[in-house]
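S.,

Sequence below, as promised.
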Amino acid sequence: MAIENLITDHLDLWTAAVRPKSSAGRGTSSKLELTGIKKLRELILELAVRGKLVPQDPSDEPASVLLERVAAEKTRLVKEGKIKKPKALPEIGEEDKPFELPEGWEWCRLDELSLTSEAGWSPQCDNSPRKNEQWGVLKVSAVTWGKFLAEENKALPEPLEPKPEYEVLPGDFLISRANTAELVARAVIAPANTPCKLMMSDKIIRFRFSHFVNSSYICLANGSCTSREYYSRVAGGTSSSMKNVSRLQIQNLVIALPPLSEQKRILDNCEKLMALCDQLEQRSESQLSAHQTLVETLLATLTDSTDADKLAQNWARLSTHFDTLFTTEASIDALKQTILQLAVMGKLVSQDPSDEPASALLERIAAEKALLVKEKKIKKEKPLPEISENEKPFELPKGWEWCRLGALMPQFQNGASSRGDSGGIPITVLRLADIKDWKVSLADTRELSIDSKSIDKYSLEKGDTLIIRVNGSSDIVGRFIGCDENYDAIYCDHFIRMRFLVEVFNTRYLSLLGSSNIVRSKIADLFISTAGQKTVNQGHISSIVLPLPSITEQHRIVAKVDELMTLCDQLKSRLQTNQQTQLALAESLAEGALA
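The prediction came back faster than expected:
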């Protein structure tokens, strides 16, 4: 089957195979990776380097002659003293040949095609880019998949002398020697408009090929799955994310080399097919964007409902189209957020006139606080600022009240900073790694020896709430984690413990509040950023304005949210199963094309 037919006959399959992009936070990512189209791009490259993308022409000069010409050129340049004599390369064994070659093709190592190769240098530079005609050093991020980013550079400090021999020139073939597992050994050709006075860093290796070699084809072959699998095998690195390859390993890359004229035909066809992939990608992204806009517009009708009857009508209208509307993780996540918003607006469950109003709870707290101050058990605090109308984003149901969290008499305690006390008692110390899906997980904890006074000070009881005090992610900092039981554990200084002297909250309801837009948007306005870390403090938390229902209504809200979140999880599970099926079908189709 021609590759064009393989694409057009299975358009729905290539565009339907998607999966969520990985996310640095603890929530799921709402962005989608078009895995089907990614798989299609990989297939095109793999067909190209196996000689299955374009037909062979018997009149083409075979690749063996091309290799002889390159070898003769090298011998001449060595004799003239223009290049050093290359070291002998290891023979290509049968185990190095992953597939059968077409007539006229040859196996060779990358260095057989190059005249010279070298790494750059690593002068001490700050991160500021160069200005005007100043010399600069390219970062490894300048070499990406098929793109040369000249702006990714660092200025060479004034006292240092430049090394012009490392200047990148148009036509240079550059490979990243150290990078993430995905980007290591990515290659790019410096374009004709490459700026002057840009030098390679020591994390970039430059190859200059014989004029008999088409560098663009070598760049294509270097990005194929076969080459990526080789680099994955040989790459070293001390971490799972950062990898490095040596110049020798790159030189030893085995390439399937077609005749020169066929290389040109392959590149032309690849360019045409990749443009088709671009069109498919743009169309898919536009459709996903339009779908998400529709979902968000319809969900807004729920939060904009003026009364319970109107909400019921809008929900009924929406629920009949669940299977067609909620077909992406982003749409299901939007539904979850809408459920949270309805919950904290008092629109998710009906109010019960027999419930004690929140105003009575606030009066009881105020009386308890006055008594404790009188008995000198707590200090008298400064009055909290009045809640302005601008701080009330919606109208509350009857029996609810707006209040600042600090008015509810929370007792705050920052976590333990000790990394172990001499003669202490072994106890679990909760870390951020022990928070899974915004709940405490004891599956993989660590213990430290902590003195008994600190254990009492940083204890965790049922009803306590942990607040994430510091994190690099704005989505994580300030989250509320409810303690559903007494824990034989303390908590580290990445958290603030919040404990109430009077029963104010169902801890699950408080966690829902902490994940709702009303609290998240306030946290985003409050946190302090220092050296890439976001931090909230006790004063920030006290100042947050919250909608407060009665305790009994909080219980009903939590039960309803649990019921609806279960529905969302079922939708997401079915979606993930469908995505896995679509991806498996796309992979099967690609494997069939390579067979």
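The chain has a mean pLDDT of 86.

Coffee later?
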